Amino acid sequence: MEGAEAANLLGERGLGRPALFKTYRRRWFLLAAVCLLNCSNAMLWLTFAPVADKTAAYFHISLEMVNWLSIAYLLISIPFGLVATWVLDSMGLRCAVILSAWLNMTGSIIRVFSVLKFLNLGSQSYWYLFIGQCLCALAQPLIIFSPTKLAALWFPDHQRATANMIASMSNPLGILIANVLSPALVPEGKHIPLMLGVYAVPAVTACALATVGIHEKAPPTPPSASATNSTSQPFLTGLKMLLRNKAYIILAVCFGGGIGMFTCFSALLEQILCEKGYSNEFAGLTGALFTVCGLLGAFLLGLYVDRTRRFIESTKIFFCLSALASIVFAVTSRFRHQAVMLAITSSLFGFFGFAIYPVAMELAVECSYPVGEGTSTGLIFVASQIEGVILMVLLQALTVRVSEDPSSTCALDQDGALDWTTPVLVLAGLCSAMACFYVIFFHTDYKRLHAETSSGDLINAEDTATADVPEA
Predict the structure, then answer these.
(1) How far is CA 261 from CA 2, 117, 199, 364, 394, in A?
(2) Helical (H) or strand (E) element with 129
(3) Which of 41, 183, 295, 328 stands the most exposed, by the fewest C-beta atoms within 10 Å?
(4) Which residues touch 317 (CB under 8 Å, ≥6 apart)?
(5) Is the separation of the CB atoms in 348 and 332 below 8 Å?
(6) Cα-Cα-Cα-Cα dihedral of 222, 211, 165, 258, to 10°?
(7) Is residue 163 classed exposed, middle or buried when 0-12, 13-18 and 19+ CB atoms within 10 A define those classes?
(8) From start to end of 46-195, where are the E strands?
(9) In whole angstroms, what is the distance from residue 96 CA to residue 85 CA?
(10) What CA–CA distance (Å, rounded) separates 80 from 44?
(11) Whole-structure pTM over 0.85, yes or no?
């Protein structure tokens, strides 16, 4: 950016002139609304994963059809992810959040229709459930892309990583709630209608907060130098810049794959463990520990990165440690009566793996600046969904059906349970391969931080020059 352009963009400051940057207290309300919406959408996504066997029995469908309720999120968000990046960077944060809130609420209500007895849907009840999931899936990209944009537009540079961490980690918080709440609400299949009603409440609340409380797509005065340039690149121009950015492509492939793996782990955990005799309640607890420790790791790493700006070093170390944890979990999950070890390894997998997510989203913006935040984070999300779909299909194809085992807790038909030994080992191997590839090949400059430093130096130089002008 040339000096004259930077001065024009950043404005002037001095005696009797308006403040250059400003923060607003209502940014915390916006953050809370996005967090609730993100949490609700994640709860709707994995409503059925912790109780997959009971869901299959209640609706008289196969486990594969239950898994498609989760896979639908991945498939739909691939094409709509590109639309969502355009909506966020072209139409603004307010439009994206309100649109996602209404899609999320409508989908949650349609899901409830599938269990209303007076409608007498019969075999059609599953398709109401599926349509509701599809509407919630349309909302997901808009919600997932919003945290980075919100942090860039409303928060100063020393709070960006923390704000992004809080908003981003509300998604795994929703996964945590689903893992704990679904088994608690559904001890038997007949309680599924209650579960669907309970999960609709946060969606309706989030929609009301977003619709009534969000009035602006950006603050009147930006909180930082980069916020003034947040939507500087047109969508297609930004997309072309990203596809030519080697560092960004490596980041998208590696962390897209990482997110896809965590998606598979969350969606399939109950099925992986039940064949070895672990209960749905233990699977829910394991998933809860996975997420709680992930939230803790993300919080600590977010604070560390906000202070040190060591994005690359942090992600490389945590990626490697999460790969090691995935290997230990893959081996341990193949044995019975290893509840303590499974809980520990799942906790470590979450602590190191989830912690990377918000930092990687910030790193995506740093290595692709001045491309808009919605586009830079959105393309990673689309990559993660594509890789997630491939992994879900691949892992299910690698399962082996075994004869019925009295110690198995899977509520399945006469065909017996599925053995997940090979798929889980493949998942751990892929995680390790991507970690190695990222550590060896990923290198980049922090372009946004450098741009802000240059802008600050320019303004300081102008102020010094103004102060040195002698009075007439």
Answers:
(1) 43, 37, 25, 19, 12
(2) helix 125-154
(3) 328
(4) none
(5) no
(6) -120
(7) buried
(8) none
(9) 9
(10) 18
(11) no
